[in-house]
Predict the structure.
Amino acid sequence: MIINRVTLLGHKDHGKSTLIGSMLITTRSVSEERIAEAKSQSKKLGRKFEPGFILDSFSEERKGGLTIDTSRAQVKYRDSAFEFIDVPGHEELIKNMISGASYAKFALLIVSANKDEGIRPQTKRHIYLSRMLGIDKLIVAVNKMDTVGYSKDRFERIRKELSEFLEKIGVESRSVHFVPISAYGSENLSKKSPNMHWYKGKPLLELMREMAKKKAGDSSDGNMRVILQGSMPHEQDSLLIGSVASGTIKVGGKIKVLPINFNSKVAALFVKGVKKKTANVSENVAIKLARQVTGDSKGSVVYDAAFKGAKNTRNIGALVFIVKKIKGQVRIKFNGIELSGKVSINKLIDTTTGFEIGPRSAQQLNAAIVDIKLDRDIPAEPFTSSRELGRFVIYQGDKFSGIGIINSVGKR
Amino acid sequence: MIKQDINELEERSIFVIREAKSKFKNVAALWSMGKDSTTMLAIARKAFLGKVPFPVIHIDNGIDFPETYKFREDLARKWKLDLMVVDSEVKPDLSGAACCGANKSIALKKVMEKYGFDALIVSIRRDEHGIRAKERYVSPRDRNFKWNYKNQPAEMWNDYSSSLDSKGHVRIHPLLDFNEIDIWQYIKKNKVPINPLYFSRNGLRYRSLGCTHCTTAIKSGARNVDDIIKELETTGIEERSGRDQDKEKEYVMQKLRALGYM
């Protein structure tokens, strides 16, 4: 069964863990034993049972009522299966959110309808970031409807405000589904709630099922790219090992390896230990070339020799989501290797509005259009051509500072 | 229990094992002769064309089952494993968590130091225990083996980078995404040799294997891999229900892991 990975976004206390807990219980995706254990734990702590306890395994989480790190839960509903990556709600833990979100097929945003909660700046930042990470499908669950008397008005107000923001950052709001729920009371999860007759759409799990059935858009242009992890000895040879990021590699094909500028021909291919004529996307491969590459090939890329889009560059233009202030010399993690680069910021963007802001504004949790000059050549490409070769992570010193997607390569 | 696509799971595991091998200088793996770590070795053999290219360590407290020792010798010979058996104490006054925590972790620390291993492949799975769900594919431990779960590295886009404490090491978790039933699907499809204790004799079998002191058998008529898969499709009982260490006190697994237990 194919598991659809879903990233869960939203401000702390808006009910992410409660929702996953309720889904696990409603769909019977978790054992009776685990439910009983969570119930007895909450009793011991002197608290009312909370479905989120099924997920929150650390003692501090149960006591403090918030989620510390990405954790995982699998929900089976009718003919679909989902894996939730529960991401924490506070700002300093945004790196954990990125770890979870970078694997997701679609995003589920939770916003509390409660009058004291509602849409927070952080909610918008999460949406901005997940869009940047390439997650273009979104469901918005407006939670805690039971605390606002199941008010249609309150739901519509939240829908309107978020739709305006989504349009601003380039998401067609018609493609986003909004659903009113109560995670605590399992309302509008698998069945329509009698308390919200005014809602004409489908319950949340049905919407997710539809989302799962939609085909994912092809994330690359289809050209062959094999990202190398290194080499391994085999009999008398040294084989290159790596994974096929896009396209198909074929025995007999003429290839070039960048950034080391090495040309050869594919002599043999092995997939899972077996000799093959071809290897396809997402397969791990071992490659024997007609002549052997010498030296370190980690982070190199194998291309079709005729492919014009493959070239080395030291200059990249990118959109960066900034987690911690960046300035001057930074470390860039690209494609499993590490480089050093000098960053210059051209423009800052407020991630809660999508508008440009002044150069002296706070960088943290906002975005920037930057130029980066690297200390050596890499085969970078625009994110729109290749997701794998069009993204990177920034560290300032040893601090995780942001992520970037590449808009342009080469000197401008 | 959800059956996942084992082809996809296998590709991810191969990637993680190869990444560990190419990124770290001195890799070793833990092998308990259980179904998970044996499956990991089967995947490593595919990743490296028939050879497991790192030493496999058995932390041996001398009280594993006789079947387990025989299985170890047979498979080590058949797969030409570079097997390292490391003796660990059993203190008579300790049991369950204290026993595994104090004894096996101490023995592991010694062998890591002696051989200077900087990466250790451990075949844990997220669905085993809530705490293990929090793990990463590559997870740093400091020199005292502590797991700082509040400050884990960002791990995204196949970039399992982590800055190492100079005397620490990383744990590599290639089977993190497998569910228990996926392990059995994998064993079936690939005919992975398996410890006979998992199969029912006289109405009892082991679902999760520890040593003779803290593992109890479950009632089951599952005599082969197909029976086990069928059993898991319908069971409502947690996998580690036969393991004492998980049940003693709340959060005991959290404490064990933070202290360096596998």
In short: The mean pLDDT of chain B is 81.
